[in-house]
Amino acid sequence: MVRFGPSGNDILFYKQGLKTTIQAQAWVAKLGLSAFEISFGRGIRMSAETAKKIGDEAAKHDIRISAHAPYFINLAKGWTDSETGAFAKSYGYIEKSLLLLKELGGRDLVVHIGSQGDLDRATAVENCRKNLKAVMDKLVTNPGLDFDFRICIETMGRYPAIGNYKEICDLCGVHERVIPTLDFGHINCLMQGGLVKDGAIAEVMDYCMQHAGKEKMQTVHIHFSPIKFGAKGELGHLNLEDSPKQFTPPFEPLAKYIKAKGLTPTIICESADCMAQDAVTLMKIFEKAR
């Protein structure tokens, strides 16, 4: 089953007098959606008790929960197994996010893997590889994380960030529980609008199928929304109705590819202000795709 959903609550949700993420689970289900991504991007402030309530409500309405770890993670810094410093902080953000994801009843945690900073690219990517392996070795032996979680490392939209789609596919090889989050808006930013060209999306998917592997791509995590870009990459999220063509990767080619290969991804919409409404639009395009 291909699942569609928003990343958080949008303007329409609040205009209808609703307020909490607990309430959002019934709301997105009523729209015909079946996924919901919770963002801890700017910090983790949710209690385990609230997470459990959201998870119970999501299960009641057959909503698949995923979560987005804090943006502060950076595994591109020098490799260390120290219990202090940058590695420990990044590991802590991931661990805490996963503990809440367990209460939420979810499986997939989206992670921004790091930024190049003043390092050369090859060194930064290699640091990410070593640090990610070290993170995974600790996570899978953590007795508090006794559930079927996956770390979904995301393609990024700014050039200094580690995470073009080729880098992400390569880094997924460090552990069986690491899969891609393919953010097509971000990929389009790095390609300076190149995804709008005929065949471009299929070319990206073919590469990912070959290099991340069909097993991981079978249930790959996907973000899809228009994103404005400039010379340095991503500038900000837009919505499907108002976005110019160069900022809007076409969804129909991806829908056709998913159907042709029999994939069952979760597709999260991150459109500005109307992510649930745009998720419904994507779902309808998918249903009509042949």
Description:
The structure is a single chain. With about 290 residues, the protein is α/β, with parallel strands linked by helices. The chain has a single domain (about 5-290), classed as TIM Barrel. It contains eleven helices and ten strands. The chain has helices spanning about 10-15, 20-30, 50-60, 85-105, 120-140, 165-170, 185-190, 200-210, 215-220, 250-260, 275-290; strands spanning about 5, 35-40, 65-70, 110, 150-155, 180-185, 220-225, 225-230, 235, 265-270. The strands form two sheets. The protein has an eight-stranded parallel beta sheet. Strands 8-9 form a two-stranded antiparallel sheet. A hairpin with a 2-residue loop joins strand 8 and strand 9. Helix 2 packs parallel to helix 3 and helix 10 packs across helix 11 (about 275-290).
Identify the notable features of this structure and list them briefly.
single chain, 290 residues, alpha/beta, TIM Barrel, 8-stranded parallel beta sheet, 42% helix, 16% strand
Quick summary of this structure?
The protein is built from eleven helices and ten strands.
Q: What is the CATH superfamily label? A: Divalent-metal-dependent TIM barrel enzymes
Count of separate structural domains: 1
Class, according to the CATH hierarchy?
Answer: Alpha Beta
CATH architecture: Alpha-Beta Barrel
Using the coordinates shown, work out and report the CATH topology: TIM Barrel
Low-confidence stretches: none
Count of alpha and pi helical runs: 11
The overall average pLDDT, rounded, is: 95
Order of SSEs, N→C?
EHHEHEHEHEHEHHHEEEHEH
Task: Report how far apart the termini are.
Answer: 16 Å
Number of DSSP E strands: 10
The 3D shape can be described as: globular
- Kindly state the percentage of residues in helix: 40-55%
Major β-sheet annotation: 8 strands, parallel
SS class: alpha/beta
